[in-house]
Design a protein that fits this description.
two-stranded antiparallel ribbon, 44% helix, 57 residues, single chain, alpha+beta, flat
Length: 57
């Protein structure tokens, strides 16, 4: 499980907001999309994530 979480550490160390979205499947494995934003841009990140999620469905 360590390898599945290692890519999420950068946002925590930098102190920036980040969100992961499911982005479909490749070779029968789930694919995730991680979005990051500048500090204090949480609302813009959530808006982008909402729009992106609509495009991926």
């Amino acid at each position: 499980m360590y390898l599945s979480d290692v890519m999420t550490v950068a946002a925590n160390l930098a102190g920036i907001p980040a969100i992961s979205l499911p982005a479909g499947h490749a070779n029968e494995l789930p694919v995730g999309l991680q979005l990051m934003a500048a500090q204090k841009k949480d609302s813009e990140l959530l808006e982008l994530a909402h729009k992106t999620e609509g495009l991926l469905k």
